[in-house]
Amino acid sequence: MKQSLQLRIGQQLAMTPQLQQAIRLLQLSSLELRTEIQQALESNLMLELDEEQEATQEEALSEEAEAAESNEPDPAEEIPEDLPLDTSWDDIYDGSTALSAPAEDATGRDPLENHAAPAEGLRQHLLWQIQLETLSDRERMLAEIIVDGVGDGGYLIQTLEELHSACPPEAAVEPEELETVLAWVQRLDPVGVAARNPQEALLVQLDQLPPDTPWRDAARTALSQHLELVAERRFTDLERVLGLDAEQVDAVFGLIQSLDPRPGSQISDTTPDYVIPDIYVVRRDGHWQVELNGETAPRLRINDYYASLIQRANRSADNQCLRSHLQEARWLLKSLRSRNETLLKVASAIVERQQGFLEHGEEAMQPLVLREIAEAVEMHESTISRITTNKYMHTPRGTYEFKYFFSSHVQTSDGGEASATAIRARIRRLIAEEDRAKPLSDSAIARMLEEEGFQVARRTVAKYRESLSIASSAERKEAPRR
Question: Which secondary structure element, helix H or strand E, spans residue 63, and what is its range?
């Protein structure tokens, strides 16, 4: 093969460290940005918190306090120098100070630090009840084995054979003994936990009701023998098989609806997530204004003293370290300013296009895609995608993620476009106003939307309804009140 030299001309985007840092900061949430800034403060000696504004606010508060005190009478004129004491010093203080506070425990946690209590899961809740009960060691062992077989939904996800195989062979546990302990576990709080299916959970809850509960026996018959009729709300057939009239079947069905088919869902070990808005939207003088939340990230500045130590001609290791820290600090400050400016631009563009939502609600939401905002702020769509991820906007109607304001287009009969969010809001309102005895089907909702000018197919209505966690018309139907 003959070797040759070729000259080619082309363009290539070079991702400099500054550009990589700016892009990475764009997609960070408020909490992640706080962590990033804290790490920078700890690793870069050129960075420090800008506390001038906080000091100014503290001085203003001090002046207000002094002015308030000047209007009050002199305490020395009303309070004598010596006051009678009703307690001794040792009764109030134990002699410990902040310097003599106990050290961190074995887990590394400061006992004086404020920590959120961990959420208690279903398994811990059941084990806690088992420990409180008066049981033999054998019964407690079987109960704990059963609890280990309970899933997050509260149902028993293992068969009795699997639970029996999990028992120690030397214990010689009989299946009947395991079944007895299972029935006891099912009556712990929440009642019906460790049931093998919704039907069993409901029956356990019925058995726990007082014997004189109205329609308890009829509800048990309906659930144990005619579950399909109950699930499909076939009230006429229930009247026939139970030998009751319409009003009595309504009472039976009301008792069943008071039960919980998923009792395990009452207890969750998930920790709530707290959202800090990045942007505040307020209305002033008849116009919507966008403001950056200054509390999402602390203010930074370059330390003037350390910056003054840098010498131009000095090439020592210490001087090079100072130069490197100064350059990194400048890059970070520039990236943070760029992030805030981009955030404000994108939020302002979104608010400008979604003023109808801010004034009238979801049904006035306009269709919007990333490309429209990218063209408005003259940025690439990938940049808009990054800046709208995990960013939240506080409005008079609530706090929403930026991506909430983007939705697909739906054609209208006059050739215009409507937002999918507005269509979903309209579907929710139609269902909320329907006659529960004759709920609207998806086809009926599609016809009503078509009369209003929205061209929406029945399958699209079904998709939107399911995304709103709304049951079908058959499941929404309630017994008529006669």
Answer: helix 52-70
Count the Cβ atoms, other than its own, within 10 Å of residue 168. 9
The per-residue pLDDT for 14 is 60
- 368: Cα within 13 Å, side-chain hemisphere: 26
pLDDT in tens, 314-336: 888 888 899 899 999 999 999 99
CA distance 253 to 230: 8
261 backbone φψ class: left, alpha, beta (φ>0; ψ -120 to 50): alpha
Distance (Å, rounded) from C-alpha 20 to C-alpha 154? 46
Other beta carbons less than 10 A from residue 23's beta carbon: 16
The CA distance from 218 to 244, in Å, is: 9
Q: Is 154 left (phi over 0), alpha (psi -120 to 50) or beta?
A: left
* DSSP 8-state secondary structure symbol assigned to residue 98: G
**Average pLDDT, rounded, for the chain:** 81
The answer to whether the beta carbons of residues 49 and 298 sit under 8 Å apart is yes
Confidence of residue 116 (pLDDT cuts 50, 70, 90): low
**Calpha distance 446→441 (Å, rounded):** 9
* pTM of the shown model: 0.60
Q: Residue 84: what residue type?
A: P
Q: Would you call 370 helix, strand, or coil by DSSP? A: helix
- Residue 47, classed as helix, strand or coil, is strand
The total of other beta-carbon atoms located within 10 Å of residue 426's CB is 20
Tell me the one-letter amino acid at 252.
V
Amino acid identity at 380: H
Q: How far apart are CA 55 and CA 53, in angstroms?
A: 5
CA triple 178-183-184, angle to 5 deg: 95
Q: Which domains, and CATH codes, for the chain?
A: 122-266 (no CATH), 279-405 (no CATH), 409-476 (1.10.10.60)
First to last CA, the chain: 95
Exposed, middle or buried by CB within 10 Å (0-12, 13-18, 19+), for 150? Answer: buried
